[in-house]
Fold this protein.
Amino acid sequence: QVQLVESGGGSVQTGGSLRLSCAAFGYAFSIYYLNMAWFRQAPGKAREGVAVINSGARETHYADSVEQRFTISRDNAKNMVYLDMTDLKAEDTGLYFCAADMRVPVAVIIRRQVVRSDFGFWGQGTGVTVSS
């Protein structure tokens, strides 16, 4: 069982930056073998995949809407995953969730455009509000 705890959300003005963190607990070993992802859910909308990073941190993928603005990274020694968000826009507002799993190869996750069903472990989310 893996427990994920997100932090770092808050309110920021358009064009600002935030760093979200995800701490993993309860896994028998390090998170090295887990694919990790960030999802977000805006009010009234479905949860969407934002970014994914594979277990070895050699492969990442981003939603088109955040490409070149967001960066996902991981520190397996610390069991941490991060999402660095820059040039934030109002449409980035939402609840951001950390997710983990190892069942599906990252190539498949990417081909499926990072969908919820490929991840079995979820955090409670951290809120991000971007306003002008």
